[in-house]
Amino acid sequence: MKKNLLLVLFSIVFVFSSFGLDRINISIVRPDRAPYFIGIPEMNIDAEEFNTLIIKLRSAKRETIRLYWASNLDPQMNEPKSISFNVKRSEGLKEYTFNLRAQNSYWAGFIGQFIFYPDGGIDGISIETSSAIIGTPSTNIRSAWIEFWGLRGRATIGSTVNVIKSINIMGKPVNLIALWILLILSICLIINKLKSSFTGEKGDSSANWVKIGKKTALAAIIIWAILEVNVTYNYLNDIFRDYADYYGKTPEQKIKQSLGDGQYNFYAFCKNVLPKNGTNVGIVYPETMGPIELKLRYYFYPIRIEENPKPDDNSEYILVYQGNPNQYLNNGKYYLFAKYKEGEIILKRK
């Protein structure tokens, strides 16, 4: 009797535990004065099974957030293991859904930590909840919709040419998807025409070769128009966001808006400390912050900025923002020149 009772209890616990594993909750915390949020799942996430991430947040401004993750295969937070998404201004909670396995091939292994990094600063943004789930057709549709209409920002070509990044849906180029749609449509129309010819049925009068070509051309025009609307939508949103962020502000206010308060305060300190001539200065910062070299070249001119210099390079100064200065200090060629606060320092060549 006791054995049967224990077996029943074990079965109940097992069943309810299985139901509970369709979602892994992620705790969101912000380290003291850090310009980002950290997400810690209640257990390591099996990326193969839990392919979708749901984020609920509110934001007082339009903002781009870069999401990074660390796995057992690669414990570092870096650009390959990341996606960017844009959030809209909202007073209430807004839900964002991403099929990460479809969008990024580096969503693999067991995921143990996340970083949510707002490009324009953390002020006004609150991430309430996040969870990893097993994707469903409805979440895949929501993810594809966000991915298609989401602001992708600009891809920098060289140093001056910027274009809207290409569109992906579920990690696949949208142009490839459009070609498949046109191909399948054409095949269906041709099969319909051949079926009518072989069976001797009169069939629909529209099932002729000329009208097949017209229908295929019309479908191509419609798809092209949708893609053009998407690109125009992205351009307009970029214009409206830049207008709200930068119009009527001084150059100093603009760079502050671009870098965020934390980075701006450090680099403003550096600008006051460094010599005003065209000396060589290296910058070191975490990969999770994204590229800022071009911004700092304008801000520090005529000082020459070099990103992530090697210890043996000819940089007179090294600006370290939340990075690791040991590789420069240990070789004996640099010493601590000035300190803004912990983790934000200036090194000088001896």
The CA-CA distance between the termini, in Å, is 81 Å
Give the count of structural domains. Answer: 3
Question: Mean pLDDT across all residues, rounded?
Answer: 79
Number of helices: 9
Biggest β-sheet: count, sense, barrel?
A: 9 strands, antiparallel
- Rg over alpha carbons: 27 Å
Low-pLDDT residue spans: 10-19, 155-159
CATH fold-level assignment of the largest domain: Jelly Rolls
Number of separate strands: 18
Helix percent band: 25-40%
Quickly give the structural class: alpha+beta
Shape, per Cα inertia axes = elongated
CATH class of the largest domain: Mainly Beta
Please tell me the CATH architecture of the largest domain by its name. Answer: Sandwich
Order of helices and strands: HEEEEEEEHEEHEEEEHHHHEHEEHEE
Strand content: 25-35%
Q: How would you explain this protein's 3D organization?
A:
38% of the residues lie in helices and 30% in strands. The protein is an alpha+beta fold. The longest helix is centred in the middle third of the chain and has 38 residues, at 209-246. The relative contact order is 0.10.
Which key terms come to mind for this protein?
single chain; 350 residues; alpha+beta; Jelly Rolls; 3 domains; 9-stranded antiparallel β-sheet; 5-stranded mixed β-sheet
Record the SSE blueprint.
Blueprint: H1 2-20, E1 23-29, E2 37-41, E3 45-46, E4 52-59, E5 63-71, E6 82-87, E7 90-99, H2 100-103, E8 110-118, E9 125-133, H3 137-149, E10 154-157, E11 161-164, E12 168-169, E13 172-173, H4 174-199, H5 209-246, H6 251-259, H7 261-273, E14 280-284, H8 293-300, E15 304-307, E16 317-321, H9 326-329, E17 334-341, E18 344-349
Parallel strand pairs: 14-15, 14-16
Antiparallel strand pairs: 1-2, 1-9, 2-8, 3-8, 4-7, 4-9, 5-6, 5-8, 10-11, 12-13, 16-18, 17-18
